Amino acid sequence: HITPEKFYVEACDDGADDVLAIDRVSTEVTLTVKKDVPPSAVTRPVFGILGTIRLVAGTYLIVITKKKKVGEIFGHAIWKATDFDILSYKKTMLHLTDIQLQDNKVFLSMLNHVLSVDGFYFSTTYDLTHTLQRLANTSPEFQEMSLLER
């Protein structure tokens, strides 16, 4: 969900009430609940957050807008991110000079080119950041940690 003040990322899990709120001015990230999302927010589906990047115009949020299932590991779905949106935290570009606007446009073009290259894979239930051998040699405490905590 997008408002002029914040981005709200809502979990799609059944029964999940948590919403990630990203302040577009302070860039502060907090956890809130669905009822805090204003009804006026523009809503669009995303499948994940790739991250943020700071360019000439300011900070941008990169989200995954399309995915394709490419396989499974031990019953866990592995997805390939196939399309992205680059969302500006800033509401306007009026603070930039013509040269800065052009530089920002070039950087956005370079970023779009990198995102168009194959190779962005993810899983919401399996740790793709460690090899199977390394996962087999980890402690039970590590295995019990969420993917975010790892």
From TrEMBL:
Residue span(s) of domain SAC: 47-140
Pfam families named among the record's database cross-references: Syja_N
InterPro entries to which the protein is assigned, alphabetical: SAC_dom
Reactions mediated catalytically: a 1,2-diacyl-sn-glycero-3-phospho-(1D-myo-inositol 4-phosphate) + H2O = a 1,2-diacyl-sn-glycero-3-phospho-(1D-myo-inositol) + phosphate; a 1,2-diacyl-sn-glycero-3-phospho-(1D-myo-inositol-3-phosphate) + H2O = a 1,2-diacyl-sn-glycero-3-phospho-(1D-myo-inositol) + phosphate
MF (Gene Ontology): phosphatidylinositol-3-phosphate phosphatase activity; phosphatidylinositol-4-phosphate phosphatase activity
Enzyme Commission numbers on file: 3.1.3.64
Keyword match Cell inner membrane: no
UniProt GO BP: phosphatidylinositol dephosphorylation
Record's keyword terms, sorted: Membrane, Transmembrane, Transmembrane helix
TM regions (residue ranges): 46-64
GO cellular component, one term: endoplasmic reticulum
Keyword set includes Metal-binding: no
Protein name: Phosphatidylinositol-3-phosphatase SAC1
Organism whose genome encodes this protein: Oxyruncus cristatus (sharpbill)
